[in-house]
Specification:
The complex is a heterotrimer of chains A (about 280), B (about 350) and C (about 325). Chain A is an alpha/beta fold. Chain A is built from 7 helices and 15 strands. Chain A has helices at about 80-85, 125-135, 160-165, 190-200, 215-225, 260, 265-270, and strands at about 10-20, 25-30, 45-50, 55-60, 70-75, 95-100, 115-120, 145-150, 170-180, 190, 205-210, 235, 250-255, 255, 265. By secondary structure, chain B is an alpha+beta fold. Chain B has 2 domains: about 1-60 and about 85-205, no CATH class; about 220-255 and about 270-335, no CATH class. Chain B contains 11 helices and 14 strands. Chain B has helices spanning about 10-20, 95-105, 115-120, 170-180, 190-205, 220-225, 225-230, 240-245, 290-305, 320, 330-335; strands at about 1-5, 20-25, 35, 60-70, 75-80, 85-90, 125-130, 155, 160-165, 185, 250-255, 260-270, 280, 280-285. In chain B, the strands form 3 sheets. In chain B, strands 3-2-6-7-8-9-1-10 form an 8-stranded mixed beta sheet. A 4-stranded antiparallel beta sheet of chain B has the order 5-4-12-11, with no helix packed on it. Chain C is an alpha/beta fold. Chain C folds into 2 domains: about 5-115 and about 160-170, no CATH class; about 185-325, no CATH class. In chain C, about 35% of the residues lie in helices and about 10% in strands. In chain C, the strands form 2 sheets. In chain C, strands 1, 2, 3, 4, 5 and 9 form a 6-stranded mixed beta sheet that branches. Chain C has a 3-stranded antiparallel beta sheet with strand order 6-7-8, covered by helices on one side. The longest helix of chain C has 15 residues, at about 245-260. Chain C is globular. Classes of the chains: A alpha/beta (about 280), B alpha+beta (about 350), C alpha/beta (about 325). Chains in contact: A-B, B-C. Chains A and B meet through strand 6 and strand 13 of A and strand 4, strand 5, helix 3, strand 11 and strand 12 of B.
């Protein structure tokens, strides 16, 4: 039976780069020990990372599928596994398995459309892969708007990439905001939901939302005010997961398993689920 | 159909055990029965069913998945899977046989769980028809006929004879192995027993319980039902129902550091437990009401939604007998679905 | 047979609900089969039609007071059997609920029946059980009624009842009883008299059946930690299943240590164990040893008493002497 790989069995990975993004978020670059990308994925999919003896946890793959050399994970320090990773050094082996879940519908629903990405805090991590995927295949999509906010300038994830690459792209508009005034910040100040309303987007778009629940809630009502329909807004959910393959029962909400049927959901799909996520 | 005299049953067990590990229900000193490995002299229990369900044979409470050796920053993964022993489980009741189908839908659906599949492929089920169901039995509610269990071989025990009917290739192989020990025969005695059992089934206190009110499309109808509050009011949040249940299949994956390496194992888990859905930064089911509701919604609504209407309860009655507060799926079904209509 | 009737309890509860003294009543609610009663909360006179008081009302409501006093705007009415009152006091000693929010009615108890003892005689298929002078049981398999004396099918903990006396109540219904010299330590002594190997084999056999469902812990009135160490995923002790047969025992041994001096010997752990493991014997061993080494002590006999293990005195026996004296 050894020839059939069990879905719970990971491959070995090695951390080749660690980038300090914010005071509590680091981005880890992972390849296999022979220097290859562990597996291919689609934008929005996740992977299980683990340190044997510490634990295993699900993370979004933040690098774009178009990157064929490595995978990246932006990880906020908030639990056992993440704390351990935050003190790890380059060269540390980890285990990785995946990809898990349904990706964003980048090749059908998103194709030809104007796109609006809205993220708060570490919520940018799951959107980074899809944003970079769409930037890579720029001609397949219309205008791209990115609204991203965090507590402070220091808490903005991928700041350098946003400023140096995203903001300089033609037809990509980046709108950054931070919660409170800060020295050295001459950009917008205020919460994401209000900023979205202020920016007053046309509804000729597909919107993708990710961030803390409270941000999602208020941004959503802002988008409705602007005339958006549930069917044109996507998000990605996070629940406790163990198996990643829809069997262990942990991320079960209604008849869906977030690890398998999600994490990407359209808001009208979420409406059909019991309010338990 | 084949037969063997009941007083020769030990010869049958011995023959099966020549080529397979044989497990069967055996009485313990506490007046209940549990599956034990047969060895010469083992006496089969006459009890209706075991406290622990036979799901252990395919989905054990604890099982090691893999090992890791770590050295400095390096990690080595060791695949510890081995082919399962060939085994036969004798005396599985109709409800429990059906539970394997419920588990198959989870573990054998893509991506296939190889640990489960391995055991499933190497296991042979000899199912034994019931003759004296308990008041807690309600397999009929789920369309199961206690007098006609499925399995690789269906078996019926009368006062003096054991009858065997192979249903699968695996079953045929066992019959072939038994050789001269069994003789071909007609089905009259079995039919008489079935008729009697079915008459008894109709007299059971839960005979009228139906699933009519439930199914995959009932989330909206039941999720916010006010009855969950009273039903779950005194739930202790323990795992008894889950762990005696033949169809509950939630699990946890954990690492155990042996000092020489790390064993990654999985163990049964329960959605009734407060930690089940806890994440580093929150928990989407904070109250026992939510956790209690999840267990029953899963069995009566969510599982059917994903499995062509099949419920993930087989009416074995273990939770009725064992819940510390005597709260159970029957009370839930009657409360939510109307007293008689499910 | 119980000395007071269900109707007395219902009438009492209804009037206390009616006059606003209480807004929640903790009582036993009828089940599907006459013996499977569920601990329940009754909030109206109409609800009370399902309240039952008979020989199957084993559940001890003391622990439910922790949650229910928080939900009550006035008081919670709780019916307490004598043994339940010890748990009640122990919880008060540990400040687990607000005494002012409880209206406790002491009710006499003649002991509770163990359904497995009845089934051992009648077999499965019970169709009705009537509790009166006798316990009359019918099954679907026979037209005959089988009659039992309560004493013949009494739960082990009731056979070895330690007290018919209520140690706490606001109101008492029926006659007060006395503390009883029971034989509850006989079985402990039997185990003490085993050789170490025999004793190990005894517990190995009993605990090997454990399925780690945590029912013993979750029902235990002494287990009231808001977060049990065994549930803490950040703790190395956290486990949902025994990784080894050693760990399997550790769960129960650690639990027994933790409730030592606080366990009132209510016996709920053994009552709810789905595998019929005599867990109460671990606790009784501690109780017996404490009685021997520190003088007689009954947890819960009075509110605020200091258990020997948390009450240092210069007369305390030295640990070494305890060890010496044991073998």
């Amino acid at each position: 039976m050894a020839e059939i790989r069990d879905p719970l069995m990971p491959v070995i990975g090695v951390i080749t780069d660690i980038r300090i993004d914010t005071p509590d978020i680091k981005t880890f670059r992972v390849v296999t020990p022979d220097g290859k990308k562990a597996f291919d994925h689609r934008p929005g999919q996740c992977a299980m990372l683990s340190i044997p003896g510490v634990g295993e946890a699900m993370f979004s793959i933040t690098s774009s599928p178009t990157n064929t050399e490595y995978m990246e994970f932006s990880i906020k320090k908030c639990g056992c596994v993440t704390e351990w990773l935050h003190q790890a050094e380059v060269g540390q082996y980890v285990t990785v398995r995946g990809p898990y879940g349904n990706p964003f519908p980048v090749d059908d629903v998103f194709a030809g459309k104007n796109l609006l990405f809205i993220a708060g805090g570490v919520g940018l991590a799951p959107l980074r892969s899809v944003i970079n995927y769409c930037r890579h295949y720029r001609d397949r999509y219309g205008k791209i708007d990115i609204v991203y906010g965090s507590r402070s300038k220091d808490d903005l994830l991928d700041y350098r990439e946003i400023i140096e690459e995203w903001a300089t792209d033609e037809n990509v508009n980046v709108h950054l905001t931070i919660d409170r005034e800060q020295e050295g910040w001459d950009g917008h100040v205020g919460f994401v939901p209000n900023y979205v309303k202020e920016l007053g987007f046309d509804t000729d778009k597909v919107a993708v939302l990710c961030g803390p629940p409270i941000m999602i809630k208020f941004t959503l009502s802002g988008l409705y005010e602007l005339g958006f329909e549930k069917t044109q807004i996507y998000t990605t959910l996070e629940l406790r997961m163990k198996c990643g393959i829809g069997k262990c029962g942990r991320c079960n909400v209604g008849s869906k398993y977030v690890c398998k049927d999600g994490p990407v959901f359209r808001f009208d799909e979420l409406d059909e689920l019991p309010d338990e996520y | 159909m084949y037969r063997i005299a009941k007083d020769s049953i030990n010869l049958l067990f011995a023959k099966i055990a020549e080529e397979n590990a044989l497990y069967l229900p055996v009485d313990n000193e506490k007046g209940s029965s549990e599956y034990k490995k047969w060895e010469d002299g083992t006496v089969m229990s006459e009890k209706l069913n075991t406290v622990r369900s036979p799901k252990d044979f395919f989905f054990p409470q604890v099982e090691n998945l893999m090992e890791f050796k770590t050295e400095g920053k390096n990690i080595q993964l060791i695949d510890i899977r081995e082919d399962s022993e060939d085994f036969v489980v004798f005396g599985v009741r109709a409800c429990d046989v059906k539970s394997f189908e419920v588990l198959d839908n989870v573990f054998l659906n893509e991506p296939v769980d190889t640990y489960y599949k391995n055991r499933r492929e190497h296991g042979v089920i000899i199912a034994l028809a019931c003759t004296r169901p308990a008041e807690t039995c309600f397999c009929g509610t789920f369309g199961i006929d206690a007098a006609s269990p499925a399995g690789d071989i269906s078996a019926w025990m009368t006062d003096d004879t054991l009858y065997l009917e192979p249903n699968t290739e695996k079953g045929e192989k066992i019959i072939a192995l038994l050789g001269d020990l069994v003789t071909e025969c007609g089905a009259e005695a079995v039919e008489a027993q079935q008729e009697s059992t079915r008459r008894i089934m109709k007299k059971l206190p839960l005979a009228d319980l139906t699933t009519d009110a439930f199914g995959g499309d009932k989330t909206e109808e039941f999720f916010n039902a006010p009855e969950w509050a009273t039903l779950s009011e005194s739930c202790l949040g323990c795992g008894t129902c889950t762990f005696v249940c033949p169809t509950c299949q939630c699990y946890d994956i954990k690492d155990f550091n042996t000092g020489k390496g790390v064993i990654r194992y999985r163990c049964w888990d329960s959605c009734m437990y407060s930690e089940f859905t806890r994440m580093a930064h929150g928990n989407n089911r904070l109250s026992q009401l939510e956790r209690f509701r999840q267990r029953f919604m899963h069995k009566l609504v969510y599982y059917p939604a994903n499995n062509d209407g099949m419920f993930s309860c087989v009416g074995c009655g273990r939770c009725l007998a064992k819940c510390p507060i005597s709260m159970n799926i029957v009370k839930v079904m009657k409360t939510l679905g109307g007293k008689n209509n499910g | 047979m119980q000395k007071i009737t269900r109707d007395v309890l219902v009438e009492k509860a209804a009037s206390l609900l009616e006059n606003g003294t209480v807004d929640r009543v903790l009582g036993w609610k009828k089940g599907e089969f006459d013996y499977d009663l569920t601990p329940a909360v009754f909030t109206s006179a109409d609800d009370l039609k399902d309240l039952v008081w008979n020989d199957f009302c084993g559940a001890n409501f003391s622990k439910y007071l922790i949650a229910n006093t928080k939900k009550s705007a006035s008081k919670v009415l709780v019916f307490l059997k004598p043994c339940d009152t010890y748990s009640f006091n122990q919880l008060l000693t540990e400040h687990r609920f607000d005494r002012e929010k409880v209206y406790a009615i002491g009710i006499p108890c003649e002991g509770m029946a163990d359904i497995s003892k009845i089934k051992a005689v009648t077999g499965d298929g019970i169709s009705s059980i009537e509790c009166g002078e006798k316990i009359n049981v019918t099954t679907i398999y026979s037209d005959d009624t089988v009659s039992f004396d309560l004493s013949d099918v009494m739960a082990e903990r009731c056979v070895n009842c330690k007290s018919k006396k209520h140690v706490a109540y606001d109101e008492l219904i029926g006659e007060e009883g006395d503390v009883i010299e029971s034989g509850r330590f006989d079985e402990v002594e039997r185990i003490e008299n085993m050789t170490a190997d025999e004793r190990y084999a005894f517990w190995q056999n009993e605990l090997s059946r454990c399925i780690r469902c945590n029912a013993c812990r979750d029902v235990c009135p002494a287990c009231t930690c808001e977060k049990c160490v065994f549930d803490n995923p950040n703790h190395s002790l956290e486990n949902k299943a025994p990784a080894t047969s050693f760990e399997e025992k550790m769960f129960h041994i650690i639990r027994a240590f933790h409730v030592a001096g606080r366990c009132t010997d209510c016996g709920e752990c053994s009552r709810v164990c789905p595998q019929n493991i005599p867990l109460h014997l671990l606790n009784r061993k501690f109780i017996k040893d404490m009685n021997t080494h520190y003088g007689e002590y009954q947890a819960g006999a009075e509110v605020g008493s200091r258990a020997p293990l948390v009450n240092y005195t210069t007369e305390d026996v030295e640990p070494g002497d305890v060890f010496e004296g044991r073998e």
